[in-house]
Amino acid sequence: MTLNKILLAGSLFFSLNGSTYAAFTIDGNLSDWGVSRNGNVNDWTPNAGIFHTIEDQHSNYLSPGYGGQAYDAEALYAYKDDQNVYVGLATGHNPETAQNPAGNSYGAGDFAFDFGINGQYEMGLNVKPSWDNFGVEAGIYNNVTWAEGLWADNAAPGYVKSEHPTSILAGDLLGTALLVISDGQTGYGEWINDVHYFYEFSVSLDLLRLAGWQGEKFNIHWTQNCANDSLLVDPPAPVSEPGILLLLMTGFVGIIGLRRQSIAA
């Protein structure tokens, strides 16, 4: 277990006991995640307790494809409380990039959720750029049929094309999430003149359950329609009831031990 996972498990435990993590405002600004302009130069690391994957490559080649800053997926963040999952994304890819493969231009993909962590991606959040004629903006879909990107051969070692879904082609609408996408921003990361775009959304756990989630850990994935660069993050499973009871019993035993020591003194 990584330090990041230990910290998040602790945060979830305290949230179950009446104290919650700082609220996220869904506004396309990642400052409440701990990511701020010129605040953490050279570093996209968020506040402690937030799951994250950071890969700001800043090069022409972006594993597994090409595209440089204009197709760079830089950081993906996730946090889950007992009501919602919150997700933040930083990318150099303009959300309104045209989907025109003949002109070597590829639009933004959708967010994909893999409940079995087996590459199936049962649920998706529809970003819906202006060129996209599928579904509703911020729609949550299950039974999803996914488009795939370009890269399979000559890709990064271990890269499997089917495990990097891009856009929702078909699916069943379950409801909507709260989604905000920022305009281009500069002043972040090591290369402060680079332009970044931030996605931020929250989706209720009830919608995840409707889509087939049964409380287990799951992956969240994002990439562009070419899949030039992709990111994956996995929020934790909730603390089970037996686990909570064990923690409470452990604390109770500790209190009894302290009381006995006090009496003996």
Describe this structure in words.
The protein has 265 residues and is of the alpha+beta class. It has one domain. It has helices at 3-16, 205-210, 241-264, and strands at 51-54, 61-62, 65-66, 73-80, 84-91, 111-114, 123-125, 139-148, 165-176, 178-181, 197-204, 219-223, 230-233. A six-stranded antiparallel β-sheet has the order 9-8-7-6-12-13. A hairpin with an 8-residue loop joins strand 6 (111-114) and strand 7 (123-125). The longest helix has 24 residues, at 241-264. The protein starts with a helix and ends with a helix.
Give the helix/strand layout.
Blueprint: H1 3-16, E1 51-54, E2 61-62, E3 65-66, E4 73-80, E5 84-91, E6 111-114, E7 123-125, E8 139-148, E9 165-176, E10 178-181, E11 197-204, H2 205-210, E12 219-223, E13 230-233, H3 241-264
Antiparallel strand pairs: 1-4, 2-3, 4-5, 5-11, 6-7, 6-12, 7-8, 8-9, 10-11, 12-13
Using DSSP, what is the number of strands? 13
Give me the oligomer status: single chain
Beta-strand portion reads 25-35%
- Tell me about the biggest sheet? 6 strands, antiparallel
Helix content estimate:
10-25%
- N- and C-termini, Cα separation: 39 Å
Rg (C-alpha, Å): 20 Å
Strands of the biggest beta sheet: in what spatial order?
Answer: 9-8-7-6-12-13
Tally of separate domains: 1
Low-confidence stretches: 1-21, 239-265
Structural class by secondary-structure content: alpha+beta
Average pLDDT, to the nearest integer?
81
**What shape does the CA trace take?**
globular
H/E element sequence: HEEEEEEEEEEEHEEH
Instruction: Determine the number of helices (DSSP H or I, runs of at least 4 residues).
Output: 3
